[in-house]
Amino acid sequence: MDKLYEVFRKSLVLIEFYIVFVGFIQVYKSHLNYIIMAQQRISEKEKTTALILAILGVFGVAGIHRFYTGKIGTGILWLLTGGLLYIGTIVDIVRIANGNFRDKEGAIVRK
To answer: Does the pLDDT at position 72 exceed 70?
Structure first.
């Protein structure tokens, strides 16, 4: 009877592990689907406008391109720090030019 109990207990442990593992896989798959959907969204903001505003930030007021794309908080930060000492502005220019810059909703600015 004790051996039967041990087999039953080990079986329950395996079943619990399987349930947790399958649940984890389902959560991971749904997270991957969300990431893929977010990567495919294209912003309504224009890439050339954002790029021109970012380049103007090097010569004048930094952060205007961030206000344009809806990133108000970092736009204020860029405005007060001179584009994070121009390093942040230059990084943003490269990201916009490469098509990797995202707006407030996470959509890529590529139009």
So the answer is: yes
